[in-house]
Amino acid sequence: MAGSDTVPVTTAARNWAGNVTYHAGAIHRPASLDELRALVAASPRIRASGTRHSFNDLPDSPGVLVSLASMPPEVDVDSAAAMVRVPGGMRYAEVAERVQERGFALRNLGSLPHISVAGACATGTHGSGVRNGGLATAVRRLEVVTADGDLVTLEGGELEGAVVGLGALGVVAALTLELVPTYDVAQRVYEGLPMEVLDDHFDALVGAAYSVSLFTDWRAPRLTQVWVKRRVDEPPPAVLGEPWFSARPADAPRHPVHVISPASCNPQMDAPGPWFARLPHFRPEFTPSSGEELQSEYLIDRADAVPALRAVARVRDRIAPVLQICEIRTIAADRLWLSPSYGRDSVSIHFTWVADAAAVLAVVALVEEQLAPFAARPHWGKVFTTAPEALRQRYDRMDDFAALRRRYDPGDKFGNDFLARHLPAT
Ligand SMILES: Cc1cc2nc3c(=O)[nH]c(=O)nc-3n(C[C@H](O)[C@H](O)[C@H](O)COP(=O)(O)OP(=O)(O)OC[C@H]3O[C@@H](n4cnc5c(N)ncnc54)[C@H](O)[C@@H]3O)c2cc1C
After folding, report:
1. Where are the domains of the chain?
2. Helix axes 305-313, 197-206, angle to 10 degrees
3. CATH class of the 5-67 domain in this structure
4. How many angstroms is it from 262 CA to the middle of ligand 1?
């Protein structure tokens, strides 16, 4: 296998946050599609690993892991169709550069561009914006290496089941993504909004621009920051540059966690720039977020945003001591079976916790109790304790996904402990 390599799993084989050590015996890095197909066909148990930014054992395998990081970085832009075909292991930062060169953009990005496209889509990763779906909604075609090493192309109906696929159907070798003409974005941070403003103005606030993020540390009933990302080619939001109730534009760049330098953040202060250098909060060449952390996130119906936030506020005294920052975003409804925003325009309540799993887990359970009446769907790639029965009730298409798994992976080659715990066979 010229160009490919295999490394034994050592302590280096942890996730990005360092809170999960993978049990897999080796990580293979095939250098071509043929090598990948041969590896999958020959491996009794195997799973794909992306850039390992998930906070739980979802990517782990009882057999071996395969990383696509050594596969050829071939990007194919079809300008007439406004589509791009990218390798599954490519990071969004690189995809963004390559489509920008051709005058195109993606509709949205997550808070960091460091993650792989296949890994992000597999977990339902999202950015913000009332009209923006999760990143997986851009996928028009998947090329998947299935259990016997076949390369299967998925489009149309089954695609809706396979895109947010948790790595359970096979190894996604390539994805074709829908593009839009490139656009510029300018972001401005506001500070100091009382939480009670959300009671009557939640929709106006989150709908004020293309992408809006609300931050709070739950130490007081106020939003510490509001990040307003506007498309430069759209009319400026009414709030721009003016005080919004008692919130004022920040007088210098900010990091969401106020004690951290904003050097790792993309430019603010309403300076226009290309979409990929404004929609993610964090710059690709720096460690995103705080680096020493755990994360959890829950998606609920946007119509329930205000009561759900009040429910979380009731336990803020327990949350604040183990929290670095909480971010509230919006995601448009989609039809992807295991997407946390399936069938409902959603609000996400995200928690960047301190890196102390024991202390955090107790509070995670408490937050989940508060959000249970709202049928909260946890982010698949973050820390959660939601019971399998509850997950099952919250996903209408769980049985259909189980059938898809049986069809593409009858021998459970791509199964692991996470899937056995959270999606037990039906
Ligand atoms: C600092 C930080 C900020 C974050 N910000 C956001 C955010 O703004 N929004 C959000 O929604 N999430 C966010 N996340 C979570 C992150 O987007 C998800 O965990 C995502 O899955 C990471 O992608 P990855 O490539 O690291 O996937 P991994 O963690 O490596 O893998 C995740 C899953 O994808 C599967 N997978 C990976 N590659 C393939 C492949 N080629 N074929 C098939 N399956 C594959 C794996 O098997 C596994 O099941 C953040 C995480 C961090 C660490």
Report:
1. 5-67, 76-181, 185-388
2. 130
3. alpha beta
4. 24
